[in-house]
Amino acid sequence: MRTDELRSLLHDRGDEVHDVGAPARIGAIHDRVRTVRRRRAAVAGGGVVAAVAAIALAVVPGGTPSPGPAEVDPGPAVTNGYSKDGVTFPAEADGLELLGARVGDRGESELVFTAPAPDAEPGLQISPVCYGPAADDHAVSVSVNGTFLFGLTCEPSRPEHPAAEGTAGAAEIEEAVATLGLTPGEPMTVRVWLRDRSTDNTLVEHRDMVVGVGVYGRSPAESASGPAPESTGSPVAGTDLPDRIEHEGRTKRTEVASVEYYPVD
Amino acid sequence: VSTHGATVTPPEQHPASGRGRQMGLRPEFDEFVAARSSRLLRTSYLLTRDHGLAEDLLQTALTKAWFAWSRIEGDPEPFVRKVIVNTYSSWWRRRWRGEQPTEDLPEEHGVDHADGSAGSHDLWDALGRLPRRQRAVVVLRYFEDLTEAETARVLECSVGTVKSQASKALAKLRIDPALVPVTEEGGAR
How deeply is A78 buried, as exposed, middle or buried, from its count of CB atoms within 10 A (0-12, 13-18, 19+)? Predict the structure, then answer.
């Protein structure tokens, strides 16, 4: 097998492609764009609720420390990308910028950190990493703000391009993200943890496995924050606010102090 | 940020960035799709080896490009090609939501090779057995005729990685059972 044979084969096969879908393609793409925008509008809509909750909740210390979870930290600066132990998340991937990243030490089975929630457009891309000799038995799970999003199987060796090998705005991820109620620019809590592939989503530990994650999106521009939300004094009917929230590893009781809303876009 | 010829302006530098941006018509995008997507479909097909998946991959990449369109400077084709390749690479691990993942894509259907080109068919099958990253390198180097440096930029890796991936791909093809000549005694020569 020579490279000229390979080249010839590829060109022959490429020439076999009759682009019968060309006339309908632009319409199909615009349909996809509309679908993505609808989902992202749902994300922004969720942002209203989250913003309301943030305004409305007076966090009252006094809850009990939640058992076990790793400490939430603000995460390292990622302006120039993030790299640790040979795992690199570039500052930009697929036109999205790195908002936060973390790779744990070998044997560190859970990572929790905060990153700024991205602008609703073009949304959120999450690229988890999990590798080690026990890859066949393990997966890595990802949650944002306490909502489980998805899991990925682990790999035996360190991935070269974790930003390209994770999720890429897949439909199910977008649907899950749409339920999060992210507020662009506000901190979101990202958690990744090692789990046993054959059981439930419970955290497990393994001294030889490495987990990590990179979070991509578009930071809200300075102008995106816009003027302060205009208070209308309207109540948010039908919104069930949790009576306890988890923050910085502690469970806290909440009280409704006031309710406000503002339109998105 | 350069992506093999195209430049993507960081969002913070772009006047259209921000939440208040309105969805507008993008005639240049439509023109680009009409003029260039047939060739990009070939690349997608050579990666996926399936006509349906190729169209899906192409549309997925073009949809991403639509959202980034206002930030692409220069020729958009390298940017779109990069998204195609990286999206394709990301498909190799199926997202897990309870079901067991698979690393296999559906194989090619409906392509009839009645021309007796068994040798090229074997090579085509052998290509399909390459790991995706290696297949991407092969397609970029030997179909798109990109240099090693250009390929590295598309794949966001080093030139050394491109060289090693290409070398491994060719080595795998050379020892693929479908391509190893068989002696009369039934052993490989």
Answer: buried
Sign of CA dihedral B24, B5, A164, A208: negative
Q: ipTM of the predicted structure? A: 0.72
Which range is least confidently modeled, A16-20, A226-230, B34-38, B82-86? A226-230
Q: Which of A87, A201, A81 is nearest to A155 (CA)?
A: A87
Best mutation target, A8, A15, A20, A26, to test chain B (most B CBs within 10 A):
A26
Burial class (CB in 10 A: 0-12, 13-18, 19+), B98: exposed
Determine the Cα–Cα distance for residues B187 and B149; give it in Å rounded to an integer: 40
pTM: 0.49
d(CA A123, CA B32): 24
- Which residues from A are below 8 Å from B43, CB to CB? 14
Closest CA to A3 of B128, B165, B170, B132: B170
Terminal Cα distance for chain B, rounded: 49
Q: Is A95 helix (H, G, I), strand (E, B) or coil?
A: coil
Binary contact (B133, A221; C-beta < 8 A) = no
**pLDDT digits over A207-261, tens only?**
999 999 998 888 776 334 433 333 333 333 333 444 444 444 444 444 333 222 2
pLDDT of residue A1: 67
- C-alpha distances (whole Å) from A24 to each of A3, A111, B35, B55, B81 are 36, 45, 14, 11, 20
Best residue in B1, B23, B53, B64 to probe A by mutation, most A CBs within 10 Å? B64
Query: How many Å apart are CA A55 and CA B146, to the nearest integer?
Result: 54
